Structures are given as structure tokens and as C-alpha cells.
Amino acid sequence: MSRSVAVVDYGMGNLRSVSQAVIHAAEGQGFDVAITCDPEVIRAAERVVLPGQGAMRDCMAELAASGAKEAVLEAAATKPLLGVCVGMQMLLDHSEEQDTPGLGLIPGRVQRFRLEGRLQEDGSRYKVPQMGWNRVHQPRPHPVWAGIPDESWFYFVHSFYATTALPEHSAGETDYGLRFTCAVARDNIFATQFHPEKSAALGLALYRNFLHWKP
């Protein structure tokens, strides 16, 4: 019997790359992938992926305008939900980017990197946004990390970073001028600041782990 995954389409930037990666990860795994903003399709799906790219205020506004917001909140209460990039930031309480409230699903805040004038170990200046590969530390085991070695490299593009109110919700950490949370997890929710869809084989493994995760 086919199972379904809904990738929420509310008009924001990384939808195509995320959906293509999920489709690739789902090949031969018995899943149908729907790219949709239809609340009923989201409600009917076994699991949900929430992408996001760009300004968080725009993402929050477009999610509400699409009609999918309530269905996403319902999914977050009842079924496996994966957030990606700004899709992770949206799960927290608040972002200082344009003073934007989030969905309030994971206690925490989103802040801007303040690295002006700071130098990296090689003498180069820190650049904002962080753009490129960086190591991800896994502070604790999680099924979505299955088979992915600690300190693996993933691809980042972001100017804002998350701080969780409770350390147990931090599922991944990265150093870029400071140590920050780059993956969050609570109950049936998992989300990453980095882009698994741009992170080669290990990113695909993360998507595949999500498809088979049974929280």
C-alpha cells in the first residue's frame, strides 16, 4: 500500500530542490509525494515536509495566505514533520528578522549573526550569510541521524540562526563564530537549518531516514 508525503507548496524559494530530493529519496520506498498547499491533502498525508527560503516574515505571510497554515499546525501535532532552512526557523517562537512571530512549536528564538570584524582561524573575515559546507555535531542520537556519522558535512546558506530555550530540543550544532543549533527535534518534529537537498549522499540519507521515522 502506498504511503504519502506532502511537501508544502506556499510559494517560497527552495520548494523545487526540496521536493526533488524527497521524490528521489522516496523512489522504491513505497511513498507517493504530493507537492501541495491543499489543506486536505496535507491532512491526509502520512508525513509532511515544510521548506522555506528567504525572509521569515515573507514565509510566514505566504504560509498563512496559502491556506495551509492550520493544516501544518495540525500535522505538527499528530504526524512526522520535517522543516528545512527557514522551515526550521518558522517552528520557533520568534525571529528578530523584521520582528516576526513564528509558529511556536519549539520554544526558542532566531537571531542574526553578528560577526562584523571577526576573523576565522585562517585569518579571513567571517561572512554573513554563512554560505557553504560546515560540520554538524550531533549532541544526542536521533533516528533521523541513523547511519550519518557525527561531525558530517552539510551545506548552509543563512544569515540568522536558532537558539532553543531547552537544550534537549537541539538535535544538531554547528560552529560559525559561535556554536548554534542547526537542527531541532521534539516528539514528531525534526528540522534542519542546513539544506539536506544540497548536501549530497548524506542529505539524501537524512530525507530517507525521515520517510521511515516512526516517532
TrEMBL record:
Keywords: Amino-acid biosynthesis, Cytoplasm, Glutamine amidotransferase, Histidine biosynthesis, Hydrolase, Lyase, Transferase. It catalyses: L-glutamine + H2O = L-glutamate + NH4(+); 5-[(5-phospho-1-deoxy-D-ribulos-1-ylimino)methylamino]-1-(5-phospho-beta-D-ribosyl)imidazole-4-carboxamide + L-glutamine = D-erythro-1-(imidazol-4-yl)glycerol 3-phosphate + 5-amino-1-(5-phospho-beta-D-ribosyl)imidazole-4-carboxamide + L-glutamate + H(+). Residues 16-210 form the Glutamine amidotransferase domain. It holds the Pfam family GATase. The keyword Transferase applies. The active site is at C85 (nucleophile), H195, E197. Pathway: Amino-acid biosynthesis; L-histidine biosynthesis; L-histidine from 5-phospho-alpha-D-ribose 1-diphosphate: step 5/9. SUPFAM superfamilies: Class I glutamine amidotransferase-like. The keyword Transport does not apply. Signal peptide: none annotated. IGPS catalyzes the conversion of PRFAR and glutamine to IGP, AICAR and glutamate. The HisH subunit catalyzes the hydrolysis of glutamine to glutamate and ammonia as part of the synthesis of IGP and AICAR. The resulting ammonia molecule is channeled to the active site of HisF. NCBIfam families: IMP_synth_hisH (TIGR01855). This is Imidazole glycerol phosphate synthase subunit HisH. The gene is hisH.
